[in-house]
């Protein structure tokens, strides 16, 4: 409890027994009527008896005068119980002053006296009063619990031995008083974050006379308090019992956070999303030039035909058909599952959905980039320039029940800035209906796209609707409408007007657009570990330069060194735009507050992270990692708290190989990741606002979307055996002797999912999977993206080394909240634009001619 301040320590008798001061004998009471001494007993005493004896001895001494450290005059002699500091200022021991300052009584004396009198049944611990501070209230609550433990642990001796008999009525009153405190509206369980520990008391003894506030205590000292606070608050918080199964087959405890996140996402988007932003950046007809076949040839991918592949769907008999697609062609969506597959011509390394307003029912587009050759490699060091092609694919009007439209290439953008590492669309305010009438030469805008290139620049494009572009270029022959060369709207560059060379920071690997309106900030991470932030609406002459061709060149208003090596991924917090997270090649994940960049909020060094995803409702990020630095059994997907709540890392899903990409859905509270083994796995997250330490059976929360396997297609080996695959890294040799098999999971329902074949296969893959690193990983998945739009929020698109991009609908994860939000958003969209939900005509939505 605490030590009484003052002199008068107990002395030892002739027989070695400890006696209280005042001359009391071993069997009699003290002359002054104080508490009788404990009876003489043989053997070792219990801890409770020793504590009671110590308290009784200390309290029988003459009560010292109340000491208040603030009243000790400088230069006066230090009173007894305090040690004089070198500057003649008394050195404070552990908690010598009552924190709330009531009556100036020493806190340690209050502790000892209250515990002993409560144990003897003399007094009742007082209720919390308005005059007491929160910490004193917590201290009294702790003393009351300690007194109860002593009462239950120590049985008082018989009356003939000199000990007092506890009064049953006082004990009953004390218990009634405790019940009243527990039912009080202040709820003491919420304030139970004070636990006197040895570390805190030792630190208080070593402190000088300074009155440092509790907020300045180091993190190591607050760690035990934070742990106890989390345990108490989580134990005291009443959580609704989610028992039984949801209609989709998942337990209600798994689907409850999905319902919650859907409501939070919708309400927060109403506050932070805008209807219209950047009105000056409108696509113009004269800035778009259609290329002929000879002009477009250097930009097109080299592979004209896809590798052979087969699709096996769960619950549907396999007919053994093998498919081979031409470049920019797609398969017809399946009648029941509605999955979409198309071939883009090369390995996919960048991909993003085009945002549309909630309830617009508009055509969904996916923009992506692939390398020109299957064997092409790029060094992260140095700058690289060259031709590249951005592809915009139309997936039709996607709904939860599926898509009836065939995917097609809407148009492609030819650039000369080198390969693309990342791309991001403006989250809101950049889309307008395709039927919007604009005067020539303006075209209706589809979105604003920021692209990170290997030449160290970030380029912004104002993309038009495909129908608007096609109508303006009707005079061009069909062969000249395969690709378009467009003049960029704005170029973002690191440096300054005096030193504007992009070689200062190296290649740009990741970009992130500010998620809150007006979306005027954009951040990017570079090879040398620098993070730069641009103000897209700046009018400063030092940051904004007009180019002769009418475009803009912007310089950052803020840049800082975030890592010792390349910044692999950067993500903005969707709930508060003051925070962002970065992951670098130095194996560190850092959380930053843009208002105080001299040090990160939290820095974690564990493994080499490839990509991070920050879901809207939570105070942390899900991380995909490379397996080169991972401990055995810990490679995969982790959720890491930013540091405010102090939660330990939550292991979302184990993976055997490197996880190249991860994406999160704010609507579904779900993350999906693709790895080098060719497996696309999704996991429904628990409510991470509560400590996930007690989450049970996390394996039931994850499920495979599909698994890609590379199998031999000739007579060189047995069927479905990987031993017969050629040990080569050349695409031409591998594609001649092997094919890719996709095994899809039925995502319409999750009933009896734990016993179904895809789940059993996934668990076996997690334990016994083997990587064949001596051959080309043609089945590897490099990019995964959830649709951010409410109209298509259940759709997931993925692509990898084979150049085959696939889109799947997770209809089984649809919640009741989503079904209620969609009609409301469509009605709001109709009232806003004065028309029915946007549904472009077939002519406007039809893709350009494909090969």
TrEMBL record:
Annotated GO molecular function terms are:
DNA binding; RNA polymerase III general transcription initiation factor activity
Task: Cite the entry's keywords alphabetically.
Answer: Nucleus, Phosphoprotein, Repeat, Transcription, WD repeat
InterPro entries hit by this protein: GTF3C_component (IPR052416), WD40/YVTN_repeat-like_dom_sf (IPR015943), WD40_repeat_CS (IPR019775), WD40_repeat_dom_sf (IPR036322), WD40_rpt (IPR001680)
Superkingdom, taxonomy of origin:
Eukaryota
Q: Where is the composition biased (Low complexity)?
A: 27-38
The annotated region (Disordered) lies at 1-44, 154-243
Q: Which Gene3D superfamilies does the protein's record reference? A: YVTN repeat-like/Quinoprotein amine dehydrogenase
Per the record, its GO cellular-component terms are:
nucleoplasm; transcription factor TFIIIC complex
User: What is the stated purpose of this protein?
Assistant: Required for RNA polymerase III-mediated transcription. Component of TFIIIC that initiates transcription complex assembly on tRNA and is required for transcription of 5S rRNA and other stable nuclear and cytoplasmic RNAs. May play a direct role in stabilizing interactions of TFIIIC2 with TFIIIC1.
Name under which the protein is recorded: General transcription factor 3C polypeptide 2
Designated gene of the protein: GTF3C2
């Amino acid at each position: 409890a605490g030590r009484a301040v003052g002199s008068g320590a107990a002395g030892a008798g002739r027989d070695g027994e400890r006696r209280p001061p005042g001359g009391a004998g071993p069997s009699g009471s003290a002359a002054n009527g104080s508490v009788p001494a404990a009876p003489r007993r043989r053997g070792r005493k219990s801890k409770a008896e020793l504590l009671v004896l110590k308290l009784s001895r200390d309290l029988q001494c003459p009560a010292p005068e109340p000491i208040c450290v603030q009243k000790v005059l400088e230069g006066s002699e230090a009173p007894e119980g305090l040690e004089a500091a070198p500057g003649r200022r008394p050195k404070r021991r552990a908690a010598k002053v009552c924190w709330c300052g009531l009556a100036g009584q020493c806190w340690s004396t209050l502790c000892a006296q209250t515990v002993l009198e409560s144990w003897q049944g003399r007094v009742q611990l007082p209720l919390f009063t308005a005059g007491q501070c929160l910490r004193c209230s917590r201290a009294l609550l702790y003393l009351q619990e300690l007194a109860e433990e002593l009462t239950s642990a120590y049985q008082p001796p018989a009356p003939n031995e000199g000990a007092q008999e506890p009064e049953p009525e006082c004990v009953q009153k004390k218990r009634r008083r405790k019940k009243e405190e527990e039912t009080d509206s202040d709820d003491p369980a919420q304030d139970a974050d004070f636990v006197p520990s040895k570390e805190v008391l030792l630190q208080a003894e070593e402190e000088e006379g300074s009155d440092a506030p509790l907020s300045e205590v180091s993190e190591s000292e607050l760690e035990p308090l934070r742990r106890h606070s989390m345990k108490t608050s989580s134990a005291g918080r009443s959580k609704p019992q989610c028992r039984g199964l949801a209609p989709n087959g998942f337990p209600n405890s798994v689907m409850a956070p999905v319902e919650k996140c859907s409501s939070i996402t919708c309400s927060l988007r109403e506050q932070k999303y805008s209807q219209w932003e950047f009105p000056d950046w409108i696509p113009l007809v004269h800035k778009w030039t259609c290329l002929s076949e000879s002009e477009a040839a250097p930009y097109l991918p080299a592979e004209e035909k896809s590798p052979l592949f087969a699709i096996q769907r769960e619950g549907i008999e396999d007919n053994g058909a093998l498919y081979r697609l031409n470049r920019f062609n797609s398969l017809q969506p399946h009648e029941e599952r509605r999955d979409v597959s198309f071939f883009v011509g090369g390995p996919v390394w960048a991909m993003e959905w085009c945002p549309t307003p909630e309830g617009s029912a508009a055509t969904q587009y996916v923009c992506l980039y692939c390398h020109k050759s299957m064997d092409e490699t790029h060094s992260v060091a140095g700058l690289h320039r060259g031709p590249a092609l951005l592809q915009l694919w139309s997936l039709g009007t996607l709904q939860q029940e599926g898509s009836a439209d065939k995917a097609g290439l809407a148009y492609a953008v030819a650039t000369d800035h080198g390969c693309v590492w990342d791309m991001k669309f403006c989250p809101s305010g950049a889309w307008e209906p395709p039927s919007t009438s604009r005067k020539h030469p303006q075209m209706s805008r589809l979105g604003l796209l920021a692209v990170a290139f290997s030449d160290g620049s970030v380029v912004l494009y104002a993309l038009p609707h495909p129908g608007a572009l096609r109508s303006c270029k009707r005079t061009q022959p069909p062969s000249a409408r395969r690709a378009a060369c467009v003049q960029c709207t704005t170029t973002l560059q690191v440096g300054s007007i005096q030193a504007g060379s992009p070689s200062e920071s190296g290649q740009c690997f990741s970009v992130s657009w500010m998620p809150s309106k007006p979306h005027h900030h954009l951040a990017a991470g570079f090879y040398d570990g620098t993070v730069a932030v641009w103000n897209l609406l700046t009018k400063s002459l030092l940051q904004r330069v007009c180019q002769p061709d009418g475009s803009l060149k912007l310089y950052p208003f803020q840049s800082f060194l975030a890592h010792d090596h390349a910044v692999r991924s950067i993500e903005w917090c969707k709930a508060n735009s003051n925070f962002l997270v970065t992951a670098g090649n130095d194996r560190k994940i850092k959380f930053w507050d843009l208002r105080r960049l001299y040090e990160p909020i939290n820095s974690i060094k564990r493994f080499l992270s490839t990509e991070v995803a920050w879901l809207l409702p939570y105070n942390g990020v899900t991380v995909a990692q490379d397996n080169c630095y991972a401990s055995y059994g810990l490679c995969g997907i982790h959720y890491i708290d930013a540091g405010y709540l102090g939660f330990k890392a939550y292991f979302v899903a184990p993976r055997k190989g490197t996880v190249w990409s991860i994406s999160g859905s704010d609507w579904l509270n779900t993350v999906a990741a693709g790895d080098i083994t060719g497996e696309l796995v999704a996991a429904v997250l628990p409510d991470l606002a509560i400590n996930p330490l007690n989450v049970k059976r996390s394996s039931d929360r994850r499920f495979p979307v599909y698994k890609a396997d590379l199998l031999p297609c000739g007579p060189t080996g047995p069927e479905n055996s990987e031993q017969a695959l050629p040990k080569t890294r050349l695409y031409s040799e591998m594609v001649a002797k092997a094919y890719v098999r996709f095994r899809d999971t039925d995502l319409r329902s999750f009933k009896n999912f734990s016993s179904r074949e895809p789940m059993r296969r996934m668990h076996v893959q997690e334990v016994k999977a083997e990587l064949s690193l001596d051959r080309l990983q043609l089945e590897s998945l490099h990019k995964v993206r959830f649709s951010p739009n409410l109209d298509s929020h259940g759709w997931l698109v993925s692509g990898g080394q084979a150049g085959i991009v696939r889109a799947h609908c997770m209809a089984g994860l649809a919640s009741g909240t989503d079904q209620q939000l969609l009609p409301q958003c469509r009605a709001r969209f109709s009232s806003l634009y004065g028309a029915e939900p946007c549904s472009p005509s077939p002519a406007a939505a039809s893709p350009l001619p494909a090969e």
